[in-house]
Amino acid sequence: MQAIERAASLPCWRGRVEPEPLGGGITNVNFVVEDAGRKFVVRIGEDIPVHGVKRFNELAASRAAHAAGISPAVVHAEPGALVIDHIEGRTLDADAVREAGMLERILPLVRTCHREVPRHLRGAVLVFWVFHVLRDYLHTLREGGSRHRDRLAAFAQVAERLEGEVGRIDIVFGHNDLLAGNFIDDGERLWLIDWDYAGFNSPLFDLGGLASNNELSPDAERWLLDTYFGDAVDDDLWRRYRAMKCASLLRETLWSMVSEIHSELDFDYSVYTAENLERFERALDQFEKDS
Fold first, then answer.
1. pTM higher than 0.85
2. Which among 110, 130, 147, 269 would be 20 to 30 A from 256, CA to CA?
3. Is residue 251 within 8 Å of residue 206, measured between CB atoms?
4. Per-residue b/e over 152-169, b at no fewer than 16 CB within 10 Å?
5. Contact at 8 Å (CB) between 279 and 212?
């Protein structure tokens, strides 16, 4: 059954519906559905083993995030399909994240995710440790005959070095995919969506991902860390954060490389790989120069 047919046939609808494709997804196929005067978003997607995406985990995180007040409600869930309330608003892009005052609105959502979502979690959920993810991606790329295979050994060495630089960590519940498009501004408040990669992690990963995905300036990064931790960060924490930021960029790069050979979605992963590889190399070069 095609995704649109699956979305239209879900048992939660009160009448006949006509799903409208919703762009932007690079992990799922998404639709907007209007039913009985209300709008919903339907996310069609099975588990994605090569990316560690498990839908039971996404569902648990989505429900807990709604209970914590930062994400829309889950209306219906079944294997391969998730229905949530539709939020009318502006989906952010990187320029919007960098707008004056936007980080001051975003950071409370991140903090709530880290500290309050765990209070509402039920059942089994995952850990997202980026260095395990990197090692697994490297195995997948070797086994899959990736066109990037000549670079994999160097990536492995960098990942090992960055893991040592990050050192000991605190544990929070991370979103782990803080792309600009996962924030929606309804004009009054922000919402955080798409919990595919959620799991227990270091707060440095979300902070580094937020900065790298949206190309924040060094001053904005300093503000982000100082405000999150409630004090001016020392040199040690700043270095560990920057190592994790490099790891976040490497993860996004390898994610795209794996998607090049495994994803069936209509998306130009080769371009996405090139963009993230350039960001990773730039960040790593600066990190090494400052070492």
1. yes
2. 110
3. no
4. beebeebbeebbebbeee
5. yes
Positive or negative, the CA dihedral 20, 23, 29, 31 is negative
**CA atoms of 84 and 112, how far apart (whole Å):** 20
Give the whole-angstrom CA distance, residue 9 versus residue 224. 44
Q: DSSP string spanning 84-113?
A: EE---SEEP-HHHHTSTTHHHHHHHHHHHH
Nearest by Cα to 80 from 137, 19, 21, 2: 2
Measure the CA–CA gap between 114 and 131, rounded to whole angstroms.
20
Cα atoms in the 13 Å half-sphere on the side-chain side of 119: 9
pLDDT in tens, 116-148: 999 999 999 999 999 999 999 999 999 999 999
Of 197, 224, 188, 81, nearest to 137 by C-alpha is 197
**How far is 174 from 203, CA to CA, in rounded Å?**
7
* β-sheet bridge partners, residue 127: 200
pLDDT digits (tens, 9 = 90+) for 60-70: 999 999 999 99
Q: What is the pLDDT of residues 230-260, one digit of tens each?
A: 999 999 999 999 999 999 999 999 999 999 9
